[in-house]
């Protein structure tokens, strides 16, 4: 399957995820607005909302803006996975988070070890987050990336070479976006031992699990 086909399916999957997160999140927040489940669904809904924004930025002339949103998304997704751990330490962290304390840093080593045990692959979350940070903060690298984007769109009308080059550079961003959709499916719909079950109903999301499997097969090595 081509990435173009997955790209067409992504909005359908995001819509299914969003509707189910709202449905389950409402149930959990009515029961207890500051519970572990409520915290997880708040982060799941933030993550899916940011994915919607990412989809609208899949354009060559604003791909540096996409970098910033990918970092914000990764923080929410990885904190969601951190908050799913079934222990009192995590629940204490969540209560401090609800009080506005600075408890929003994901536990990268713990989540990475958990995912490696689950799938056999090293997610390298901390390393990837560091890479995302380097292009979302005003570093020299980020400024050079934005300059390359600006040069490409400024060159429009002066020939097609620069624009074609810019289109080619967008493909890795499209791959990253598809991986982001797939990893949210893991973070919010997989009920694995050691995580609290979120109870999402896959029957209400018929396109979600097939998308995850297709994306994993096509985009292995990304994440």
How would you characterize the overall build of this protein?
About 3% of the residues have low confidence. Helix 1 crosses helix 9. With 223 residues, this protein is an all-alpha fold. The protein is 72% helix and 0% strand. It has nine helices and no strands. The two termini are 18 Å apart.
Structural class: mainly alpha
Q: How much helical structure, as a percent, in the residues? A: over 70%
Beta-strand share of residues: under 5%
- Report, as a whole number of angstroms, the end-to-end distance: 18 Å
Short description:
The chain is built from nine helices and no strands.
List the helices and strands and how they pair.
Blueprint (H helix, E strand, L loop, with lengths): L2 H29 L4 H21 L6 H21 L4 H11 L9 H12 L5 H12 L3 H15 L6 H29 L18 H11 L5
Helix pairs in contact: 1-2, 1-8, 1-9, 2-3, 2-8, 3-6, 3-8, 7-8, 8-9
Key attributes of the depicted protein:
single chain; mainly alpha; globular
């Amino acid at each position: 399957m081509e990435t173009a086909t997955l790209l067409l399916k992504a909005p359908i999957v995001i819509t299914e995820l969003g509707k189910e997160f709202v449905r389950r999140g409402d149930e959990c927040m009515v029961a207890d607005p500051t519970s572990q489940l409520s915290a997880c669904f708040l982060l799941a809904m933030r993550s899916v909302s940011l994915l919607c924004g990412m989809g609208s930025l899949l354009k060559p002339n604003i791909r540096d803006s996409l970098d910033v949103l990918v970092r914000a998304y990764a923080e929410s997704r990885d904190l969601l996975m951190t908050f799913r751990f079934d222990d009192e330490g995590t629940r204490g962290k969540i209560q401090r988070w609800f009080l506005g304390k600075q408890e929003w840093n994901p536990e990268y080593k713990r989540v990475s070890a958990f995912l490696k045990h689950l799938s056999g692959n090293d997610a390298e979350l901390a390393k990837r987050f560091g890479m995302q940070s380097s292009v979302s903060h005003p570093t020299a690298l980020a400024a050079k990336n934005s300059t390359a984007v600006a040069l490409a769109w400024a060159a429009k009308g002066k020939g097609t070479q620069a624009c074609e080059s810019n289109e080619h550079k967008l493909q890795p961003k499209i791959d990253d976006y598809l991986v982001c959709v797939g990893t949210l499916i893991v973070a919010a719909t997989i009920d694995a031992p050691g995580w609290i079950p979120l109870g999402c109903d896959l029957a209400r999301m018929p396109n979600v699990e097939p998308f995850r499997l297709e994306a994993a097969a096509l985009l292995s090595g990304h994440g």
